[in-house]
Amino acid sequence: MKPSFDILIVGIGGQGTVLASNVLGEACIIEHRSVRSAETHGMAQRGGSVESHIRIDGKFGSLITPGTADLLIAFDLLEALRYRHYLPAGGRLVVNRHLVVPTSVYQQGLAVPDEESILAALSDLDVACIDAAELAEEAGSSLSQNIVMLGAASGDIPLRPETLEEAVRRCVPPKTVEVNAKAFRLGRAAAGERGAPAP
C-alpha cells in the first residue's frame, strides 16, 4: 500500500497555488494528519511556473516522484500538460479551463495551442475540466479561482469536505471568507459529489 496520498498543485505566478497548498496543510492539521509540503517558485513573479507538492500521511521527503502522484490540480491547461508526467497513466487530473499563452510562443512565431489539442494530449488521464473563472465570478471574486479548483478536487482528496472548507475559512483574508467558502462549494458542485478516497 502506498504510504502517502500525493497531490501536486501547479499554476502560474499570481494564481494562488501556494495559498491552495496552505489550505490543504491546514486541513491536515485540523484532522491531525501528518503532512509534508514544498513549493518551487522559480520565475513566478514574472508569470513563471509554480508547483506545490503536498504529501498527506507521508513518512519520507516532501517532493513527489514523477509518475507517482495521486492527484494533479492544474490552474492552467498548459501547466497541466507541462506536469502531466507526475501522474501515472489513468491518473486523476482536475484542470482549470484557462490558458495563458507564454510570450515565447509569440516571439518565436509558434502556433498557439488550443484547449482541444491540449485535452487530446491528456486523453490518457482521468480529467475533470472546470471553468473556474465563471464559478469564481459567481462566488463574488475572480481571485477565488484557486479555491474553486480546490472545491472541484475535494472529492478526490482523502480529507472531509467540511474540514477543507474550514481550512479555507482559516487561510483566506477575513473580508473574503464568505466569497471563498462559496467558491469552494461551487467548485465541489461543478465536479459532482465524487466520493473521496479512503484516508
UniProtKB/TrEMBL annotation:
Coiled coil: none annotated. Residues 13-188 form the Pyruvate/ketoisovalerate oxidoreductase catalytic domain. It is an enzyme of class 1 (oxidoreductase). Keywords: Oxidoreductase. The keyword Oxidoreductase applies. Pfam families: POR (PF01558). Its EC number is 1.2.7.8. The keyword Magnesium does not apply. One of its GO terms (molecular function) is indolepyruvate ferredoxin oxidoreductase activity. InterPro entries: IorB_Oxidoreductase (IPR052198), Pyrv/ketoisovalerate_OxRed_cat (IPR019752), Pyrv_flavodox_OxRed_cen (IPR002869). PANTHER family: INDOLEPYRUVATE OXIDOREDUCTASE SUBUNIT IORB. This is Indolepyruvate ferredoxin oxidoreductase, beta subunit. It comes from Methanoculleus bourgensis (strain ATCC 43281 / DSM 3045 / OCM 15 / MS2). The lineage of its organism: Archaea, Methanobacteriati, Methanobacteriota, Stenosarchaea group, Methanomicrobia.
